[in-house]
Amino acid sequence: MHVTIKRETDTPAYMQIFEQIRRQILSGELLSGFRLPPERKLAESLGVNRTTVVNAYRKLKAEGLIGSQVGRGTVVLSYPQEDLNSGTGNMQEPVWNQVFSQYSNGFDSCIVKDLLTLASRKDVISFATGIASPETGPIQALAGIEHEIVEKKNYRALLHTPTEGFSSLREAVCGLMQKRGVSCQWDETMLLSGSQQGIDLAARIMIDPGDVVVVEEPSFFPAVQAFKTMGARIMGIPIDDRGMRVDVLEQLLHRYRPKLIYTIPTFHNPSGTEMELERRRQLVELAYKYRVLIIEDDAYGDLCYEGRALPALKSLDHDGYVVYLSTFSKTVYSGLRLGWMVAHKEVVKKFAAAKQVMDLHSSSLSQWIVERFIASGGLDAHIPKVCREYRIKRDTMYDALSKYAPADLIWNRPRGGYYIWCKLPPGISAAKLISKAAERKVVFVPGSPFFSSGQGDDFLRLNFTFAPRKDVDEGVQRLCEAMKELLDNSDHQEIGPDLEINPIV
Amino acid sequence: MHVTIKRETDTPAYMQIFEQIRRQILSGELLSGFRLPPERKLAESLGVNRTTVVNAYRKLKAEGLIGSQVGRGTVVLSYPQEDLNSGTGNMQEPVWNQVFSQYSNGFDSCIVKDLLTLASRKDVISFATGIASPETGPIQALAGIEHEIVEKKNYRALLHTPTEGFSSLREAVCGLMQKRGVSCQWDETMLLSGSQQGIDLAARIMIDPGDVVVVEEPSFFPAVQAFKTMGARIMGIPIDDRGMRVDVLEQLLHRYRPKLIYTIPTFHNPSGTEMELERRRQLVELAYKYRVLIIEDDAYGDLCYEGRALPALKSLDHDGYVVYLSTFSKTVYSGLRLGWMVAHKEVVKKFAAAKQVMDLHSSSLSQWIVERFIASGGLDAHIPKVCREYRIKRDTMYDALSKYAPADLIWNRPRGGYYIWCKLPPGISAAKLISKAAERKVVFVPGSPFFSSGQGDDFLRLNFTFAPRKDVDEGVQRLCEAMKELLDNSDHQEIGPDLEINPIV
């Protein structure tokens, strides 16, 4: 056995002793049965305190590497001779359920993935996806980029950025936030690889297993899934046509002291509702009172088709309780994978530290394109154009529903966002409607994934932004025919009283 | 109290009862003291089994919402009247240390971040970063993209891709893998937002708190940090000039049954070493024998300056035990944030499910640029050019060290990759050298962050790819002057015997 102590390092002497002996045991230099020198003796020879050696031996014992034997002192132990598979000749795949972590079990296979696969077929009219219409994309955002990058050798667009993003783009984000009523500084912002990353970061940075997270019922299910995978206990608050039922929330805050409230106050996904101003004020007050942070998901705040959107929750928050998330996916291009957050500096700092380990930073090229598009005034000019187009599509879908809907179908007319939310007539379920609709080549997302309680099978989310204008009327007609067929075939035996509170109609 | 049972949903009847009563209590419809109907009576009126109501009441009791009172039956409880801060008038910031999760504490502030800030100053010669030289970037990869996207309306580059990436790019990745000796199918690959994301995903998908992860000592510290933040116990295996000490590894595998082995077998970061072929074979055999997965980080495999790189571990694995990660950051542009993985389909499936929640997918534009660059033969033509340039830089740095180094400085001459690894003369520490070097406007990364044991302060990692050719000699001269100054000032009292195993010289 050979041990030396280095004085000029930060490693404590006991750790140095521990590591050297451990290494010699594991490498086979010290065989099982080897007698270690008594603690006092080794301490003397190394010129250290006896406690130092005692601590090193204790750590070796804790790892099962050495042990005390009567009459022999401290010896190297043999390692347990367990049965091992022989290793050669008989290879096999890993046992997959032993390979993956607890956390990984949170990712359920999701009906929505199959729907999106179906929705990508060319002959299918899709009301399923939550994505922008390809033809309304601001292709001019890319005009001239090649000249600037290739000819002017603008390597900035291709090299690393800080984890938080280009500081010039963070400044530009502050400008965007003013339109949502928010005053912020560049160091209170951070660019994200889509706003989904912001939700995932919030879950990782803020949730310990067992923490309660409050969500609207229904809510954007990938957010709920992100919180669940970190071990959160999800509690749903119903919404009505004025947004989250803040009166119900207070009782829950008092009883359960949640860690986070996740909300989409503006043009809610899936229901299209807006939280009214008074409830927004109450919500922020409650956050202060119960000292609970709010994640405000504002993906749709810029997409208001009548008048102006209500101010963001973040604009009402002066003490750092709201973490604001938004994205360029709905107004520029989703494939750029670029979103942003605005929060208290302490939160930005923590999020950046975690993001650095996750993906270092978001695509520099995406950041550069978006920054240039904002600076040129392109984004400001583009948003009203998109709103005009989506307003027409919303009206087309709304009118088509009025024309074709069976009796007892209920739907809303959201002032902005991407979705019309429908409640099916009693007696038909969204699950059954999916296959009938698929036969007619039209797809939608059923309500149930949006409910944490497993309810919602009597709801549909219809996206009106993706399908070409000319297909919207046709798609709604096909969908309504599918409903009518189901209603005609229904023997009415299944229909019972339905007196539950409706989250939204 | 009003409760109804819906038959046509998946929600069990007891959950329906529980949720309806809970909602009514929280919304204040049922006040504290309200007497719930006896279980039998409610069961009869709803037409359900008594056990159903018993289970609903039990769940309400567990949440502290109702309780049994002698002589009164089951009643709604008042909620605990705790002290609350008054809420208005006296706003305060959140108590930040209560806001963040256990997990978030894993992100230590890191000396390296400050170094990189220093390194980004124009008047400083940087050997610190692990990034490509801006002027060797393949700017031609972008030539013509605007024409193809804007004029040909190629929206594909701007819209969503599947989480795993464009299937055509996944096919192209299979072609790249053949050069590393690996045969794979497109569905065994996935695009990543940089290879760092692959490491983070591996940590999340495979590590439960307390799991042992084996890493080389030294190793790439952001990887170690990703494993630590998921609660892994890190065990370091020393390396020598033939790579990881596989003999030491087997003892450790037997004793501790690790969950993962993380290795950079080819042009190791930070030490530049290559794992010899025999050890690669042994390592894969050990993975089979002990049924432990290997994460092979092959960021530098394409950057070989003499002869050919050894085959990837993945090429020796026929049973799905190796998860291979690589990146386009070192050969194309780091700002594109694009890497890839190759693994057994089961692993790809799990990684994709987790990636979907993290960032949906990697930048479509980055994917499209890289796919086009590969398909045009651009990448194949570019890699030899980069290798020629970096070989010259490596030789320049090596020669400069030979010219200027103080006695007893030891360094290596790696056959590929990005780094020369130096061991300082006894008596000077890398921590002290940082400030002396900074005075002379040259920066490097000290060895200690790469060691999980806190050792390594006698090592330096010198990157030779980033600094312009003309600065490499000058930078090494300045660095060696700083060493000499420290050696002259050293009173030699600190110098003790140094007989520890050197991980690598």
From TrEMBL, chains A, B:
Its cofactor is pyridoxal 5'-phosphate. GO terms for molecular function: DNA binding; DNA-binding transcription factor activity; pyridoxal phosphate binding; transaminase activity. The keyword Repressor does not apply. Residues 11-79 form the HTH gntR-type domain. InterPro entries: Aminotransferase_I/II_large, HTH_trans_reg/aminotransferase, PyrdxlP-dep_Trfase, PyrdxlP-dep_Trfase_major, PyrdxlP-dep_Trfase_small, Tscrpt_reg_HTH_GntR, WH-like_DNA-bd_sf, WH_DNA-bd_sf. Keywords: Aminotransferase, DNA-binding, Pyridoxal phosphate, Transcription, Transcription regulation, Transferase. The keyword Protease does not apply. Belongs to the class-I pyridoxal-phosphate-dependent aminotransferase family. Homodimer. PANTHER family: HTH-TYPE TRANSCRIPTIONAL REGULATORY PROTEIN GABR (PTHR46577), TRANSCRIPTIONAL REGULATORY PROTEIN (PTHR46577:SF2). This is Transcriptional regulator. It comes from Formimonas warabiya. The lineage of its organism: Bacteria, Bacillati, Bacillota, Clostridia, Eubacteriales.
